[in-house]
């Protein structure tokens, strides 16, 4: 169970910056 929680947190921490970066690129290309 602990492994699943750690995996979820790690995936969230990895995905968050990626989503933010994608949003920034989309905003720049749109503007």
Summarize the helices and strands and which ones pair or pack.
Elements: H1 2-30
Q: What is the structure about, briefly put?
A:
The protein is mainly α. It has one helix at 2-30.
Please provide a written account of the structure.
This protein has one helix spanning 2-30. The protein is mainly α and 31 residues long. The protein has one domain (1-31).
Q: How large is the radius of gyration? A: 14 Å
User: What is the straight-line distance between the termini?
Assistant: 45 Å
What integer is the average pLDDT? Answer: 90
The largest sheet, given as strand count, sense and whether it forms a barrel, is: none
Helix content: over 70%
The oligomeric status of these chains comes to: single chain
- Enumerate the spans where pLDDT stays under 50 for 5 or more consecutive residues: none
Pick out its properties:
31 residues; mainly alpha; 1 helix
């Amino acid at each position: 169970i602990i492994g699943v929680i750690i995996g979820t947190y790690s995936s969230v921490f990895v995905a968050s910056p990626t989503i933010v970066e994608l949003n920034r690129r989309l905003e720049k290309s749109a503007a």
